[in-house]
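Run Lrp/AsnC family transcriptional regulator through structure prediction, thanks.
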Amino acid sequence: MLSSESIGNHHQQLNTVRLDDADLIILRELSKDARTPNNLLASRAGIAPSTCLGRVRALQDAGVIRGFHADIDPQLLGLHVSAMISVMVRPDFRHEMLNSARMLQSLPEVQDVFVLGGTPDILIHVICTSVEALRDFVARNLGAKTTFSATQTNLVFEHLSPTA
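Sure, done. The structure for Lrp/AsnC family transcriptional regulator is below.
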């Protein structure tokens, strides 16, 4: 989720998309709650509801708004172990780094994948049912691959969501 500070309250240009104050308010409000009713969103942005609906559609069409998401509690689904795994790609496989990241992204345990500049090469966030399932995930998907030279797994004790 983007914070109010990162979205800002001023005119700015994002790539080729020109955003005015109403657009910035819409983005800030939707980043706080994607289910904000259009009438309330329009009121907060100081524009008519029909204009607001058009603005949201235009922001979607321009790719600024990429989607609307549900914040799901993994614990209630039996997914009790969360980890951040640092992955080093072997130097002779660096040309395969993006493909490796996409392969990791396709795995059901993987929540997020970040390709980094620096160390590690790839950082993944995984959620598993147990420590044993996490161990199996690492062995099966990371340790058994010749593409990766090393991994480091860090258990997440607490995830402080920006909405908390």
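The chain has two domains: 4-61, 74-155.
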